[in-house]
Design the sequence.
């Protein structure tokens, strides 16, 4: 765009790009009511109707506004929100608290999420062990459980918990150096250090910290150089009794494609799992969140949402935010009817049968591969393995015939499906880790 573009032009263009990125439904509901109202010194101010918009964007597309405007203008900008509705004083207070923590973290160069703290983590039977272990580690880093390995399915609170450890330490120990990093980011740093001949810098950075919090470690499966580097980082820290906390979407024994020596390191300290929350915990999380947002939700609304959302707590919160945005925009109180109308597309109907599509999606997500790959002819070991497992699960969970199942996988014949099922049965009987993988997938398909 030219330098002289008006802010209306920039915004119109931005919206059309965003619409393509996020799809029509999300666009209509969340982005259309926004407006770019000021652009000064590379600072964009975007007006939004209420705080739920900010929360939704932060959760779902944190960078989309600044990135889109940057792509149009060709330079870095920062985007902030202005809420048109008058804000509640107590909510402002909480937000100011987060903001001052954010500043403190920024000063110390720590990339923790200031909102993820122990105080707002709801404890139930599904997560109490992991929570207790995390608290202990935060109180006595390097002294209790090392490493602490926390695992559990998507959206069950791993990232929240390991950030809470970091934040608690930041609050208490001003000189302790803490590093929170996703395994994906760690991988990128390894690659970049190798490419630019900066391995020495990389090593001194990671071997001289007091607390390493590494999120989603399953990401380094299959990545040899990263595993090698992580192994040495781990050893260096461990020898100096520095605290290491690792999160993963599965237990160490279920992470395929990592070296045995790493797997055994992961199991050296304490392993804590987070299970799917029961309905009481889900309701408690909803109440807590509603209270923080100054929303009134009745028991039947909480129960309705908690019973419809199977386990993912992010989805649970997503429902509440959507409900809050609607109620606030239309000035209607939240009752069961509103909840049913507003959330109808979000909620999976109980009686909806499990489909082959869903199984393929879950299996591919689990193995970190693309759905199109298990439908194609590709035959790497990893893909063939995922395909066989998905076929086996499709046979278990759906009413489709073997030939029909074959067709869902890019036109394989029924003999291929029979073979796949047999292979899976045999491996289940022989291999402990394989059996656990199947169990885990079962839990994800029918929690
Ligand atoms: P994961 O890393 O396991 O995928 P997250 O830690 O990102 O999950 O959690 C998803 C969302 O659910 C976050 O917004 C988090 O704050 C919230 N959440 C998860 N568990 C709890 C809990 N026990 N109490 C309150 N909020 C939770
Ligand atoms: Mg996470």
Sequence:
């Amino acid at each position: 765009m030219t330098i002289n573009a008006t802010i209306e032009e920039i915004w119109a263009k931005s919206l059309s790009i965003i619409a393509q990125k996020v799809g029509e439904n999300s666009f209509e509901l969340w982005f259309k009511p926004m407006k770019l109202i000021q652009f000064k010194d590379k600072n964009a101010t975007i007006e939004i109707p209420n705080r739920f918009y900010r929360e939704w964007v932060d959760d779902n597309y944190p960078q989309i506004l600044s990135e889109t405007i940057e792509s149009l203008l060709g330079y870095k900008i920062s985007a902030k929100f202005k809420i048109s509705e008058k804000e509640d004083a107590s909510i402002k207070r909480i937000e100011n608290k987060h903001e001052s923590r954010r500043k403190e973290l920024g000063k110390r160069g720590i990339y923790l999420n200031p909102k993820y703290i122990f105080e707002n983590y709801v404890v139930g039977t599904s997560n109490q062990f992991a929570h207790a272990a995390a608290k202990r580690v935060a109180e006595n880093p390097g002294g209790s459980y090392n490493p602490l390995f926390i695992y559990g399915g998507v959206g069950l609170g791993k990232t929240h918990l390991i950030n809470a450890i970091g934040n608690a330490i930041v609050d208490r120990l001003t000189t302790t150096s803490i590093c929170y990093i996703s395994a994906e980011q760690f991988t990128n740093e390894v690659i970049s250090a190798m490419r630019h001949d900066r391995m020495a810098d990389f090593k001194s950075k990671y071997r001289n910290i007091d607390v390493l919090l590494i999120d989603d470690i399953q990401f380094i499966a299959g990545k040899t150089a990263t595993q090698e580097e992580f192994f040495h980082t781990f050893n260096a820290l461990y020898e100096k009794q520095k605290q290491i906390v690792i999160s993963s979407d599965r237990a160490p024994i279920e992470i395929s494609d990592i070296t045995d020596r790493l797997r055994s390191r992961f199991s050296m300290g304490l392993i804590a799992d987070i299970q799917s929350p029961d309905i009481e915990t889900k309701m408690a999380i909803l109440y807590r969140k509603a209270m923080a947002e100054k929303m009134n939700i009745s028991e039947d609304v909480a129960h309705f949402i908690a019973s419809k959302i199977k386990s993912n707590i992010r989805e649970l919160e997503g429902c509440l935010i959507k409900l809050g945005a609607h109620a606030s925009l239309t000035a209607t109180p939240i009752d069961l009817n509103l909840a049913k109308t507003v959330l109808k597309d979000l909620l999976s109907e109980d009686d909806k049968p499990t489909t082959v599509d869903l199984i393929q999606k879950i299996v591919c997500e689990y193995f970190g591969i693309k759905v199109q790959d298990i439908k194609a002819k590709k035959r790497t070991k990893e893909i063939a393995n995922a395909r066989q497992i998905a076929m086996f699960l499709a046979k278990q969970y759906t009413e489709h015939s073997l030939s029909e199942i074959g067709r869902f996988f890019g036109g394989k014949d029924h003999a291929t499906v029979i073979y796949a099922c047999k292979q899976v049965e045999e491996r289940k009987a022989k291999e402990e880790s394989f059996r656990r993988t199947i169990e885990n997938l079962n839990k994800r398909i029918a929690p």
Notes: The chain has 21 helices and eight strands. The longest helix spans residues 89-108. Strands lie at 35-40, 43-48, 78-83, 148-152, 178-182, 211-215, 243-248, 270-274. The two ends are 49 Å apart (CA to CA).
